[in-house]
């Protein structure tokens, strides 16, 4: 019995040493195999997800109103899309499309569906047209004509403006879920009035019906005229708030942060015919703002 007990204790000691040795190898690494299962998954290097916003899209479509059509930039009361800030080919402007794509590709891969006189209610239809081209970026500038009405009472309500812009975004998303959208703020129309009213020619053209809610009775500074202009300006600010809020709900939409509204257009940036719409120089400034926003590393 004594010999058997001694032999058993010896075997037990050897087994214990072996177990402890294996445990020691695992504790310090040694030659033990790597972790498996959930531990292995945790230790796998994670690939960085592709950014949602592509700073170099390969095609551009533009929607909006007379500003995007280059109205009154080349000749009186006429569109001049070749100087459009969004898709124009003019070297003087260096449009958003040209800056992003280069001249030759911009000629083939950019499209302008803006319409002079268009309001936000027209944007869903323009979005549907633009979507047929499958652009990677849609550039939007709309809202000035919603404030530029015969009277302040006729201006598009803020609620309707919001519903119409949301419909436009839904229209685009229904066709192109991953298209990117650049949204420009509505310009400060009162700033344009204050600059243009120094031109006798400009004021004569204004009487043909350009933005009467802001430009009508241009030289009047009485209480009624001042209130009318401030009402228009406040409505534009409300429109810009809508553009910002609706755009913020879409992961692939960038608002310019109010940059166009804040830009201090001078006489050099205004049409020499109507002193209200952007000149060629003004179109170039709009292109700069758009390009800066689209290519920014963060929105």
From TrEMBL:
Q: What PROSITE patterns has UniProt attached to this entry?
A: PROKAR_LIPOPROTEIN (PS51257)
Q: Which UniProt keywords apply?
A: Hydrolase, Signal
Q: Name one GO molecular function term.
A: phospholipase activity
Q: Which Pfam families has this protein been placed in?
A: Lipase_GDSL
Chain segments annotated as coiled-coil in the UniProt record: none
**Signal sequence range:** 1-23
The reply to whether Mitochondrion figures as a keyword in the UniProt entry is: no
Tell me which InterPro entries the record gives.
GDSL, PLB1, SGNH_hydro_sf
The record's region (Disordered) falls at 30-56
Identification of the protein by name: SGNH/GDSL hydrolase family protein
| UniProt lineage | Bacteria, Bacillati, Actinomycetota, Actinomycetes, Kitasatosporales
């Amino acid at each position: 019995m004594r010999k058997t007990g001694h032999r058993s204790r010896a075997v037990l000691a050897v087994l214990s040493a072996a177990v402890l040795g294996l445990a020691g190898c695992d504790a310090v690494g040694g030659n033990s195999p790597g972790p498996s299962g959930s531990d292995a998954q945790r230790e796998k290097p994670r690939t960085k997800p592709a950014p949602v916003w592509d700073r170099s899209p390969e095609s551009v479509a533009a929607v909006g109103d007379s500003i995007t059509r280059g109205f009154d930039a080349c000749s009186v009361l006429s569109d001049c899309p070749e100087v459009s800030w969004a898709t124009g080919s003019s070297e003087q402007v260096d449009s958003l499309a040209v800056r992003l794509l280069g001249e030759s590709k911009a000629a083939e891969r950019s499209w302008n569906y803006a319409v002079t006189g268009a309001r936000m209610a027209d944007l869903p239809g323009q979005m549907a047209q633009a979507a047929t081209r499958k652009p990677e970026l849609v550039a939007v500038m709309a809202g000035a004509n919603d404030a530029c009405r015969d009277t302040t009472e006729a201006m598009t309500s803020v609620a309707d403006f919001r519903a119409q812009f949301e419909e436009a975004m839904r229209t685009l998303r229904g066709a192109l879920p991953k298209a990117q959208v650049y949204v420009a703020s509505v310009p400060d129309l009162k700033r344009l009035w204050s600059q243009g009213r120094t031109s006798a020619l400009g004021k004569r053209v204004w009487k043909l019906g350009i933005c009467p809610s802001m430009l009508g009775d241009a030289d009047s500074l009485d209480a009624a005229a001042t209130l009318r202009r401030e009402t228009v300006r406040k409505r534009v600010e409300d429109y810009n708030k809508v553009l910002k809020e609706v755009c913020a709900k879409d992961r692939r939409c960038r608002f310019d942060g109010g940059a166009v509204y804040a830009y201090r257009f001078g006489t050099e940036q205004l049409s020499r015919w109507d002193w209200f719409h952007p000149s060629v120089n003004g179109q170039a400034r709009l292109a700069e703002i758009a390009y800066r926003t689209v290519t920014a590393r963060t929105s």
